[in-house]
Design brief:
Bound molecules: NADPH dihydro-nicotinamide-adenine-dinucleotide phosphate
Radius of gyration: 19 Å
Largest sheet: 8 strands, parallel, barrel
Order of helices and strands: EEEHEHEHEHEHEHHEHHHEHH
Number of helices: 12
Strand content: 5-15%
Distance between the termini: 32 Å
Mean pLDDT: 97
Structural class: alpha/beta
Length: 324
C-alpha cells in the first residue's frame, strides 16, 4: 500500500480507501461487509468512509458491528462520518443541516453506530444555506477540542465557502477544515483541478475523493446495457442512473475510447481509471466502492499500474477522454 498525507496534516491515509455508500446495508449484508473490510485492512487500507445518511444510519451500524467483530486495533485504521442529510427518511428541521445542534447530535449518533470513541474524520456533507458558516465552524471546533473528532472537513462545498470557513477559523482561533471530499474521476475534473486549486497551497487542504469509477461507469460495465445486479439497476437509485447514464452516448463513448489503452497496458478499465486519479498529487486518498470481493481485490491492484502511467500514457488518456 502507498500512504499519503492528508494535505498538510500529519495524518497518513492509504492512497486507496474504502467507502460504504449504496452497498452497506443494501447490496451488502454482514458477512460480505466483513469480508470486504477484512480484505481492505489486510491489504493496508486504513480509512473507511461512512455518513449518517447512508441507508439512514444502517451503513454505519453495519460497519460498526463488523469493525467490533474484526477487532482491528483502533490505531490501525481511520473511520469517518458525514453530517447534513440526516439519518431518517423525512428528517425534522433539527435532524438535518449544519446547525450546532445537528452537527453535535449527529456526531454522537455516529459514534454510537460505529461503536468508536472518536471519529478520525468528520465531514459537512454539503453546504447548508440555512446555517451561518461561523456556527458550523464553531461546532466542529468544539468536537475537536472534546476529542470526539480528530480532523474535520467539507464535502462539495464551493471554494468560496471554504475560504470563508478558514477566515472565520483564523480570526477566532478555531480549528479549520483539513480536507474536502469531492467527486473526482476521468469524467468529472473541474472542481478538484480548477475551482479548488487555490485551496491546496493557501490552507494545505487534502482531498478524499469519491466515485473514482463514476459509480462503476468507468469500469466499462455499462457499455452494453445495465446489468441486473449493478448499482444503477438498484430500486430507489433511478435518480443516480439518470445522473450517470442520462447523457446520451457521450460518456459511454469516452469510456469506450479508453478501452484500447487499458488493453495495451494489460489492465482493466477500472484499474486504469483508479490509478489515473492518483496521478494528481492533490488527491490524498481515492475512496473505492465495491459490492463484491473480486471488485475490491481488482481495484486494490490498481496501485501496481501507477508506476507505468508516465506522462505520455497520461496524455493519451486525456486525449482519449477529450475526443471520445
Ligand atoms: P465508484 O465510483 O468506484 O463506484 C463503486 C461501484 O462501482 C461499486 O459499488 C460497484 O457497483 C462498481 N464497481 C467497483 N469496482 C468495480 C469493478 N472492478 N468492476 C465492475 N464494477 C465495479 O465509487 P463510489 O461511488 O462507491 O464512491 C466511493 C465512496 O465515496 C463511497 O462508498 C462513499 O464512501 C464515498 N462517496 C461520497 C460522496 C459524497 O458526497 N461525499 C458521494 C458518493 C460517494 P455494482 O457492483 O453495484 O455495480
Amino acid at each position: 500500500m502507498l500512504y499519503r498525507r492528508l494535505g498538510a496534516s500529519g495524518l497518513q491515509l492509504s492512497a486507496l480507501s474504502f467507502g460504504a455508500w449504496v452497498t452497506f446495508g443494501w447490496q451488502v449484508g454482514r458477512g460480505e461487509a466483513r469480508d470486504l473490510l477484512a480484505l481492505a485492512h489486510d491489504r493496508g487500507v486504513n480509512f473507511f468512509d461512512n455518513a449518517e445518511t447512508y441507508n439512514n444510519g444502517v451503513a454505519e451500524q453495519l460497519m460498526g458491528d463488523v469493525l467490533a467483530d474484526l477487532r482491528f486495533p483502533r490505531d490501525s485504521y481511520c473511520v469517518s462520518s458525514k453530517v447534513f442529510f440526516g439519518a431518517v427518511e423525512q428528517p425534522l428541521p433539527t435532524q438535518r443541516g449544519l446547525s450546532r445542534k445537528h452537527v453535535i447530535e449527529a456526531c454522537h449518533q455516529a459514534l454510537q453506530r460505529l461503536r468508536v470513541d472518536y471519529l478520525d474524520l468528520y465531514f459537512c456533507h454539503r453546504p447548508d444555506p440555512d446555517t451561518p458558516i461561523a456556527e458550523t465552524v464553531a461546532a466542529m471546533d468544539t468536537l475537536v477540542r472534546q476529542g470526539k473528532v480528530l480532523y474535520w472537513g467539507t464535502s462539495e462545498w464551493p471554494a468560496e465557502a471554504i475560504h470563508e470557513a478558514h477566515r472565520i477559523a483564523r480570526e477566532n482561533h478555531l480549528y479549520a477544515p483539513t480536507m474536502e471530499q469531492p467527486q473526482y474521476n476521468l469524467l468529472h475534473r473541474e472542481r478538484v483541478e480548477v475551482e479548488y486549486a487555490p485551496l491546496y497551497e493557501a490552507y494545505g487542504m487534502g482531498t478524499t475523493i469519491w466515485s473514482p469509477l463514476a459509480s462503476g461507469l468507468l469500469s466499462g460495465k455499462y457499455n452494453d446495457g445495465v446489468p441486473a445486479d449493478s448499482r444503477l439497476a438498484q430500486p430507489g437509485y433511478e435518480w443516480l442512473r439518470e445522473s450517470v447514464l442520462g447523457h446520451g452516448d457521450e460518456r459511454l463513448g469516452k469510456v469506450r475510447a479508453l478501452q484500447p489503452i487499458a488493453a495495451e497496458l494489460g489492465t482493466s478499465l477500472a484499474q486504469l481509471a483508479i490509478a489515473w486519479c492518483l496521478l494528481n498529487p492533490q488527491v490524498s486518498t481515492v475512496m473505492l466502492g465495491a459490492s463484491k470481493r473480486e471488485q475490491l481485490a481488482q481495484n486494490l491492484d490498481a496501485l501496481e499500474l501507477l508506476p507505468r502511467l508516465d506522462a505520455s500514457v497520461a496524455q493519451r488518456i486525456r486525449r482519449a477522454v477529450e475526443a471520445g
